[in-house]
Predict the structure of Protein PIN-LIKES 3.
Amino acid sequence: MDLVPLFITAWIPVLKMLMVTGIGSIIATPSIDVLGEEARKYMNAVVFYVFNPSIVGNNLSKTFTLESVASTWFMPVNILLTFLLGSVFGWILNKITKVPSGLRPILLGCCASGNLGIMLLIVIPSTCNERSSPFGNPVLCQARALAYASLSMGVNDLIFWSYVYNIVRLSLGFEKENINITDNETSAPKSIEEGMGSNHANDAKLVDAKDSTGYIAGTENEENSQTMCKVQIGRKMSISVSGLQPAIVALRRLFTPSTYGVILGLTVGIISPFRKALIGETAPLRAIQGAISLLGDGAIPTTTLIMGGNLIKGFRKSDIKVSYVIGVVLVRYFLLPLAGIGIIKGAIHFGLLHPDPLYQFVLLVQYAVPPAMNMSVISQLFGAGESECSIIFFWTYALTLILFPLWSGIFMWLVS
C-alpha cells in the first residue's frame, strides 16, 4: 500500500484534533477569557473525576471479554517499555545537554511519559473512518480502537503516577513533603497536650484546695490518671493516622478515576451476569450503561479544549535553551518510534502478539506521541520548570501535525 494515502489517512484525525485544540487556545486568551485558568481548573476536575472514567469503563465493558483480555496482555508491558526507554533517552539527554539539576526531572518526565490517553481516543477511532484505512469494517474497527485506547489510558495513568511522579518527587519534592508530614505528626499531639495541660493545672489547684477530704483527693487522682490515659491514647492515634497519611496519598495518586474505570469496565465485560445485565439492547439495566455512555461522550471535546487552553502558556518568555526542546523532540518523535518498531517487530516474530493489525498499530503508536499533559500538573505541583514545560509542550504539540501522521502512516504500512 502507498505511503501517501496512509499519511493522509493519519493526518486528517490529527488535523481535526489540532483544530479543536486551536479553538481552546483562542477562547482561553485574556481578550476572550471564556476558558481562563480558573475555568480550566474546574473543567479539568469534571473531566478527571467524571468524563474519563465513564468513557474508559463504557468502552471496555462493551468490547472486552475474558478471551480478549488474555490476548492483549502485551499492552501493559509495551506501555511500561515506553516509559523505561524514554527514561533512558531522557537521562542521556540530561547528560549531553548538561541540564540544571532543578530541570532534569522535568525533562526526564517529558521524555518518559507520552499522551497515551485522550490523544489515542481521538486519533485512532477517527482513523478507522477514513477511506484509505487498512483496518477493515469502520464500525468494528472503531469499537476495538476505543477499547484499546481506553485500556491504554488506564494503564498509562497507573504507571505514570507510580513511576514518573515518584521520579520527580524524589528529585525535587521529597524533603519538602517529608517536612510537612513531620509537622502533621507532631502538631496534633502538641495541641492535645497543651489543651489538656490547662486542665491538669486546674485539677491540681482543685486537689490542693480540697485535699482535706480523702474522698475528693482520691477522685481527682483517678480523674487525672484517666486524663493522662486519654492524652496518651490521643497521641498514639494521631501518630498512627499521620504515619498512614503518605501511604493513603500514594494510593490516591496511583489509582486515579480512570484506573477505577478500567477495573469496573473489565469486571463488567469479563463477568457474564454483569455483562448480560448492563450491556446490550435487551439488558435490564441498560439505562445505566446509556447514562455512562452519555457522560463519556463529553470527555474528548472537553479535554481537547482544555489542552488548547493550557498550550497558550507556551507563548510566555522563558530562558529555556533550544537544545532542551530539540532533545525532547528527538526522543519523542525519532528515537522512541524507531525503538518501538524494533520491539513490536520482535514481539511479532516470537509470536507474542495476536495477528490483529489494529492492535499492532496501537502498540506502535504508543511510541510516537507527544509528552503527557500530566507533566504540566507535576511541574505546577512541585513549582519546578513550569515555564520550561510550557515551551516544550507548545513545540512538541505543534510538531504533532507533521511528525505524528508521518509515523502513523509508516506504522499502518508496516502492519497492513
